[in-house]
Amino acid sequence: MSFVNNSLLKAICLSRIFLIGFMGSGKTTLGRELAGVMQMDFKDLDEEIEKNEGTTISELFQSKGEEYFRSKESFYMRSLEQTNNVIIATGGGTPCFYDNMQWMNDHGLTVYLNLPPEILFQRLRPQVDHRPLLKGKTDEELLQFIRERLKERSSYYGQSEIIVEGNSLSASGLQKQISVHLKKKE
Ligand code: S3P
Predict the structure, then answer these.
(1) Are 127 and 22 in contact (CB under 8 A)?
(2) What's the confidence (pLDDT) of residue 56?
(3) Ligand 1: does its nearest atom lie under 6 Å from the Cβ of 173?
(4) How confident is the model at residue 3 (pLDDT cuts 50, 70, 90)?
(5) Do the domain assignments include residue 108?
(6) For residue range 54-77, what is the model confidence (pLDDT) as tens digits?
């Protein structure tokens, strides 16, 4: 099978790839690796917010509340409009607020990393105390939260141009899936 080469792939992607998915779906880890494979830059939207606001996401949630965080999230995402040749790992809630999903589809290629709730549960379980939306949850509450939020968010995530099964996915596997998808559209 032949794949479109890296530079053509980047041109087709409008030089911006948005990785979308629930917390724990691997957006940051895979995004960083994919950027290496594709010789593109990498940005993590949460890190951009932390850098610009001079605080952590947890502290921002605590001191200013979720509504403030969502407005900043949307603002800093839009400020990436001038940034090219970049893979962007979005936050798990990014596509679900304002018209962020539409904006991402208008400004780059959106790729949803889809994982079942049980796998997300296993991945997120050790991190509950470090994540503002998960803090203090028991195992039962965590699994229920993941199931409910995934259901609520699926209509946003599902607007992604490409949907891939995110479990056991490597960066080169992801690159191939993106290539195959774009090739079909040629
Ligand atoms: C959130 C996901 C987090 C972070 C914030 C809210 C969410 O990002 O933006 O804690 O609403 O799902 P990651 O998905 O990168 O962990």
Answers:
(1) no
(2) 96
(3) no
(4) low
(5) yes
(6) 999 999 999 999 999 999 999 999
The whole domain housing 72 covers: 6-178
What's the CA-to-centroid distance between 181 and ligand 1, angstroms? 27
Has residue 1 been placed in a domain? no
CATH classification of the domain holding 133: 3.40.50.300
Pocket test for ligand 1, best of 20, 23, 133 (most atoms within 8 A of CB): 23
Would you say residue 186 lies in a domain? no
Minimum CA distance residue for ligand 1 atom 1? 92
What is the helix (H) or strand (E) element at residue 20, kind and residue range?
strand 16-20
Geometric angle at alpha carbon 26, from 94 and 164, rounded to 5°: 85
Vertex 168 angle, CA 166 and 170, to 5°: 85
Q: Is residue 183 part of a domain?
A: no
Question: Residue 135 above 60 pLDDT?
Answer: yes
Question: How many domains are contained in the chain?
Answer: 1
Q: Is 91 in the pocket of ligand 1 (CB under 6 A)?
A: yes
93 lines ligand 1 (CB under 6 A): yes
Cα–Cα–Cα angle for 69, 111, 105, rounded to 5 degrees: 70
CB-based contact 159:105 (threshold 8 Å): yes
